Amino acid sequence: MNTRRINLRRFCFVGDCGRWPGLAHPFYQDGYRIGAHGSLLVRTPSDRPDSSKGAVPKKVSLLCTQGRGRWRSWPKVNRREIPYLTCTRCGDGPNHCPACGDKGGIEPPEVQQIGDVWIAAHYDDVLRKLPNVKWRHSKNTTGNETCVSFRFDGGDGAVMPVVDSSLSRA
């Protein structure tokens, strides 16, 4: 196993973290050092006590631990733009916002296919840099939402999809 230290800061939230300011920096919880950014969490084992530089969600280290299926190699690049969006400013749309004159900046983001779901391409970019990354589908801790669990030499994590398999039919 590769034991080099993973830079978890690149997985942390940038900007206003809202009610979870502790997500701006790696933190320690439940025997892990964690970098989290809303829909992405990366963790590495640690023997340090729980601590953070601000509030973090409780039990975030358990996100998407109910995996199913075999571990698969990270897929080849297979990207596309999401063909439907709502305005980031006023919620109108899709793809054109007459309500605010497109001041909300509707730009279809690029997504990467992982199995039958799609994740944000910028998450895929940073996950590809992890050593020997593998993936499988999982359920979140409430058991009602699919996510992608992954593991790599030195840790593991989860990423929430932006859209499900319906994008494949679009």
Uncertain stretches: none
Helix-and-strand structural type: mainly beta
Q: Would you report the number of β strands?
A: 11
N/C terminus separation: 40 Å
Characterize the main sheet: 8 strands, antiparallel
Principal-axis shape equals: globular
Number of helices in the DSSP assignment: 1
Mean pLDDT: 76
Radius of gyration: 17 Å
Strand content: 25-35%
Could you spell the SSE succession in H and E letters? EEEEEEEEHEEE
Q: Percent range for helical residues?
A: under 10%
What features would you describe in this structure?
- The protein has 170 residues and is mostly beta strands.
- It has 1 helix and 11 strands.
- The chain has one helix spanning 121-127, and strands at 27-29, 32-37, 40-45, 66-67, 72-73, 79-81, 110-114, 117-120, 134-139, 146-152, 155-159.
- Strands 1, 2, 3, 4, 5, 9, 10 and 11 form an 8-stranded antiparallel sheet that branches. Strands 6-7-8 form a 3-stranded antiparallel sheet.
- The protein starts with 26 loop residues before the first strand and ends in an 11-residue tail after the last strand.
List the keywords:
eight-stranded antiparallel beta sheet, mainly beta
In a nutshell, what does this entry contain?
By secondary structure, the chain is mainly β. It has one helix at 121-127, and strands at residues 27-29, 32-37, 40-45, 66-67, 72-73, 79-81, 110-114, 117-120, 134-139, 146-152, 155-159. Strand 7 and strand 8 form a beta hairpin.
Strand and helix layout:
Elements: E1 27-29, E2 32-37, E3 40-45, E4 66-67, E5 72-73, E6 79-81, E7 110-114, E8 117-120, H1 121-127, E9 134-139, E10 146-152, E11 155-159
